[in-house]
Amino acid sequence: MKNENKIKLKVCGMRESENILELAKLLPDYMGFIFYGPSKRYAGEVLNANSLASLPASIIKTGVFVNESAEDIKKITQRYGLTAVQLHGEESPEQCAELKASGLQVIKVVHVGSEVGWKVLERYEEVCDYFLFDTADAAWGGTGRLFDWNLLKDYPSDKPFFLSGGIGTEQLPIPQFVVDKPLWAIDVNSRFEISPGLKDVERIKEFKEKLNA
C-alpha cells in the first residue's frame, strides 16, 4: 500500500551559491543551512543572502542551530530570510515556544542511539511543528550513519517527523512500517556530497525521483 501523502525532501548542509541555485531547480521541499561553527558545513561565513532571496517560494529555507540563543537565532533567520529552524542541541521547550511564537516553523531534533527516550518528546509536543530523528553523535549530527529504524515502530506520537542520519539511495524505498507512521520528510546530507557542503545535484535528482516512485 503506497503512502497517500508525498514524502517531502530536505537537503541539508548547503553553502555555495552556485550549488544552491543548481539544487533549487529540483525544487526540494526544504533546504538546510548550518549555523553551528564547529560543523564542516558551517554556512555563516560563505552564505549569500541574495542567493537565498532568489530561491523559489516553495522551498522552505531552514537554519540549523545547536544551543544558540533565541535572540541570535532570530537575528540570523531575519538576515537570510529563513522561515524554519532545526534545533539540534539541548534547547528547552520554552525556547522552542518562543521561536514558534515568532512565526518560525520549529523542527526539534531527537538524537537516537540504541534506544529512544520517548518520554522526552512529551515536553516538546506543543512547542514544535515536527520532530527530526537523527543518529546520536558527540558532534551533534552529520555522522553519515543510519540508526536502527525498527525503533520507530514504537513511536508514540501523531506529530509528523523528519528522518535523517546517513540516508542514501540504497535506503529506498522507505520501509512500509516507517511510511505508516507520520513520516513527513527525508533529510539527506553527507551521502550526496562531493566535499563538505557541496552537493552532487544529479545524485539528489535520482534520489528525489525514486523517493515517491
Helix percentage range: 10-25%
CATH topology: TIM Barrel
Count of helices? 7
Q: Mean pLDDT, nearest integer?
A: 93
Low-confidence segments, given as residue ranges, are none
Termini, distance in Å?
Answer: 12 Å
Report the radius of gyration as a whole number of Å: 16 Å
Major β-sheet strand ordering: 1-2-3-4-5-6-7-8
What name goes with the CATH superfamily?
Aldolase class I
What is the second-level CATH architecture? Answer: Alpha-Beta Barrel
C-alpha geometry: globular
**Number of strand segments:** 10
Question: What structural keywords apply?
Answer:
24% helix, alpha/beta, two-stranded antiparallel sheet, 7 helices, 213 residues, TIM Barrel, 10 strands, 22% strand, 8-stranded parallel beta barrel
Describe the structure.
The structure is a single chain. With 213 residues, this protein is α/β, with parallel strands linked by helices. It has a single domain (8-211), classed as TIM Barrel. Helices cover 24% and strands 22% of the residues. The protein contains 7 helices and 10 strands.
Quick rundown:
The protein is of the alpha/beta class and 213 residues long. The protein is 24% helix and 22% strand. It has one domain (8-211): Aldolase class I (TIM Barrel, Alpha-Beta Barrel).
How does the SSE layout of this entry go?
Layout (H helix, E strand, L loop, with lengths): L7 E4 L5 H8 L5 E5 L14 H5 L6 E6 L4 H11 L3 E4 L5 H9 L3 E8 L5 H4 L8 E6 L25 E3 L12 H4 L3 E6 L4 E3 L2 E2 L1 H11 L2
Parallel strand pairs: 1-2, 1-8, 2-3, 3-4, 4-5, 5-6, 6-7, 7-8
Antiparallel strand pairs: 9-10
